[in-house]
Write a structure and sequence with these properties.
Helix content: 25-40%
Strand order of the largest sheet: 11-12-13-14-18-17-16-15
Largest sheet: 8 strands, mixed
Shape: globular
Strand content: 25-35%
Number of helices: 12
Length: about 650
């Protein structure tokens, strides 16, 4: 026994030195040392959280224990060590991470993934995130046979599953994220779109290309997207138990990388053969669907660009014949470009980029968000404004003192058609609120101008944090004191609300599981255009705000996102998807060619008040804190 302990110390020191050298570049970030931390002790977890995250942390403890039981049943195995979960609000990246060395740990950022393609398909975002990250723990920590013996010597640094290909590691976690919730990326129309177009355009990747360095679209997301769909195919063909059989077999193999031997044992074929079979099945399915769709009237619009990238939102510029949109670049400065819709020529407009743009009626003033705030220890998305006349960008603030840390932390922003107001979706502690205010233009050579800040004054909270719903990207009505905004509630319903400036909800459109996103009013305010995947593919729809009639405008094979209306009210431009990314498309607005459909709506007058909309979350958190299995203590790094 003494020899085993000695060997463990040697291995620990060796691997700790390697880990420190590999990750030392990340150590400078960490957490603000001023934060006060506490720990929730539960049966299988230690949940560490800082001040202000009490409710989220208690919910995380509850969901983690629920997830543990589900994953224990699904994997027919469970980790022996306590799992540490760090709950933090120091980033606006809707993400998490998991590691098994030197101990089992999950990090989660408390940000709902509202505006992230594929991830916005959630019912309970916190539970979905925990299910995904805990799947990594269950999977990577699994060892049997000789591997279990070696692990007793090396500790968690012996991890055969850690050298599995990314499509297996991330595909499995995204598969469990889908199977353990009512939504998840495996049910996303966005992922389905990527598979469909890669098959129809003969651009389907090989299994050995599925890594984080895949050079074609969708780049590093490929292991997640293709991986989850491949796991769902395996589950459909062979059952969940066959997947678990493979995992247990691989965890017992002393020599890694022999995946095909395990695949033959569990599925009867190698993964190369299974991948090809899956591709053939998808080809039959999508070709059949395409044939049926072509029998209908297809309105794919006119393609104006050929970038095939993750382009930014299009915005009509001035005369309805020009469009501004963002073009990212990995080799030079990402920029906004201006496109002439007649000759399809484009040129650089200005050197800044944001995928989420909003502009006034004449595109003289742009607002956008950018991930560059939070100081040394945080990474937040802040709100900015670009003044075309000055060719200058300014940071937006609510604070007249314009300190260094007074930026407006937000996930989305929109500007009114007259360029005088903004509506901001503000993040904090896993919740969101809507704030509206007037743009205060600083005087020339004033202190705020020198600091490149613009103050948002006379602010009004249209929807408070304690309403506990999540918001997509809002838009202003062109003439009325109203906004439209996508809403995701806590039971998985997504819909669009029209809210007045005096905090009244007057209409809800699409109150159902379909994703309804990217609203924009027609220039006369008669119609609300938006994107919906209610027929399985994201298309543009129109809703008459007076008669409540609804119409389908586009009927594409790929997908449509972020429509914008021309100033003469005769056209819409949008981001359209093809085999390898997005481009800008345009189509004419001809009501006679629209397809009349039914979309559920509620015409109501519901005042948004903090009292009326106090959520059961707070009560649930109080109940959780009384749970005898949960003990809350001051954080102790030695426990």
């Amino acid at each position: 026994m003494t020899n085993v302990i000695a060997l463990q110390k040697i291995f620990f020191r060796f691997f700790f030195t390697i880990s420190l050298s590999l990750f030392c570049d990340q150590l400078h970030a960490g957490f603000d040392p001023k934060l006060t931390w506490k720990t929730i002790h539960s049966r299988h977890f230690r949940i560490h959280y800082h001040h202000g995250e009490d409710h989220i942390a208690l919910k995380a403890a509850h969901y983690a224990e629920e997830s543990y039981l589900v994953l224990e049943r699904n994997f027919q195995w469970s980790p022996k060590d306590t799992i540490h979960i760090v709950v933090s609000d120091n980033s606006d990246s809707a993400n998490g991470a998991a590691t098994v060395f030197p101990y089992l740990q999950v990090n989660i950022f408390v940000v709902p993934p509202v505006n992230i393609p594929g991830l916005e398909n959630f019912d309970n975002w916190l539970k979905m995130l925990l299910n995904h990250e805990l799947t990594h723990i269950f999977h990577l920590d699994m060892v049997h046979g000789i591997n279990a013996i070696v692990k007793k010597v090396t500790g968690n640094y012996w991890c055969p599953n850690c050298v599995s290909p990314p499509w297996l590691i991330e595909g499995l976690a995204t598969y469990e994220e889908t199977m353990t919730t009512s939504k998840g990326r495996g049910r996303s129309s966005y992922l389905e779109m990527i598979l469909r177009m890669s098959v129809l355009d003969n651009h389907f990747p090989k299994i050995d290309q599925m890594n984080r360095y895949y050079e074609d679209w969708p780049y590093g997301s490929s292991p997640y997207y293709y991986g989850v769909m491949f796991h769902l195919y395996l589950q459909k063909q062979f059952g969940h138990d066959a997947i678990v059989q493979f995992l247990h077999w691989y965890a017992s193999m002393p020599v890694p990388f022999l995946l095909d031997r395990g695949a033959i044992k569990a599925f009867g074929k190698s993964f190369y053969e299974l991948w090809n079979d899956w591709q053939k099945e998808l080809n039959v399915q999508y070709q059949s669907e395409k044939t049926e769709r072509e029998k209908q009237h297809l309105n794919n619009g006119i393609q104006l660009t050929h970038h095939q990238l993750e382009l930014g939102d299009p915005i009509y510029f001035g005369d309805s014949e020009h469009i501004v949109f963002g073009v990212p670049s990995s080799t030079s400065a990402s920029s906004l470009y201006i496109l002439d819709t007649k000759n399809k020529k484009q040129q650089k407009f200005t050197e800044f980029f944001s995928s989420h743009l909003s502009a006034d009626e004449h595109a003289k003033r742009f607002v956008y968000i950018k991930g560059d705030g939070g100081g040394k220890y945080n990474l937040y998305y802040n709100a900015y404004i670009y003044e075309l006349s000055q060719k200058e960008k300014y940071r937006l603030t609510f604070n007249k003192k314009t300190d260094d840390d007074d930026s407006i932390r937000s996930s989305a922003i929109a500007i009114s058609s007259d360029g005088t107001k903004v509506i901001v979706v503000q993040n904090s502690g896993g919740y969101q609120q809507l704030i509206m205010g007037n743009i205060f233009i600083p005087k020339k050579n004033s202190n705020t101008q020198k600091k490149h800040t613009i103050i948002i004054a006379d602010t009004k909270t249209l929807s408070p944090f304690n309403r506990h719903v999540f918001y997509g990207r809002p838009t202003f009505h062109p003439t009325k004191q109203e906004i439209a905004v996508p809403v995701s509630d806590e039971i998985g319903l997504q819909y669009i609300e029209i809210i007045t400036f005096d905090r009244k909800i007057i209409q809800r459109i699409g109150y159902e599981p379909a994703l309804d996103l990217d609203p924009v009013f027609s220039k006369d305010g008669k119609y609300l255009y938006f994107v919906s995947d209610r027929n399985g593919i994201s298309n543009v729809y129109a809703y008459n705000v007076t008669t409540h009639e609804s119409y389908q405008i586009t009927n594409v094979t790929g997908g449509v996102f972020h429509p914008t209306v021309s100033n003469d009210n005769t056209k819409i431009a949008y981001r359209g998807y093809s085999k390898a990314g997005f481009d800008i498309f345009e189509t004419k607005l001809d009501v006679s060619k629209w397809k009349n459909i039914y979309i559920p709506y509620l015409s109501i007058t519901e005042e948004i008040t903090a009292l009326a909309l106090t959520s059961t979350i707070s009560k649930e958190s109080i109940d959780l804190s009384l749970n005898s299995e949960f003990k809350i203590k001051d954080y102790n790094p030695y426990e």
